[in-house]
Design a protein that fits this description.
Elements (H helix, E strand, L loop, with lengths): L1 H16 L3 H20 L5 E6 L4 E11 L10 E3 H7 L8 E6 L6
Parallel strand pairs: 2-3
Antiparallel strand pairs: 1-2, 2-4
Length: 106
């Protein structure tokens, strides 16, 4: 629900300022990438999916599973035990994608 309200606000802004759809999409992505950089230090391992027609906004963080106690970069790696809380059959070396909620960005 909060995503829909956010997209609607940006859509109204787009109409008021006569901004085309492609530019609006680029602005939205940059806004969220900036928030990700502030929160996590980097936005390189995040996928941002925006569908203004449906009001959909999804942000996914992609990390690699490493052995427990071997996490050196928490934004890019996840321990095996933490990954297995998400899905019990994860193994070391696999990619894990987790959805980042808007509330988590502050």
């Amino acid at each position: 629900m909060e995503n829909l309200a956010l997209i609607e606000s940006f859509s109204e802004f787009k109409d008021d300022k006569f901004i085309d759809r492609v530019t609006l999409m680029a602005i939205l992505e940059e806004v969220f990438r900036s928030a990700l950089k502030r929160k996590f230090g980097s936005d390189e391992n995040f996928d941002i999916i925006i569908n203004p027609d449906k009001g959909d906004l999804e942000i996914w963080r992609n990390r690699i599973v490493v052995e427990d106690g071997e996490v050196e970069e928490p934004n890019e790696e996840i321990s095996l035990s933490e990954a297995q809380k998400i899905e019990p059959d994860f193994e070391v070396g696999e990619d894990v994608s987790e959805e980042v909620k808007m509330m988590d960005l502050g």
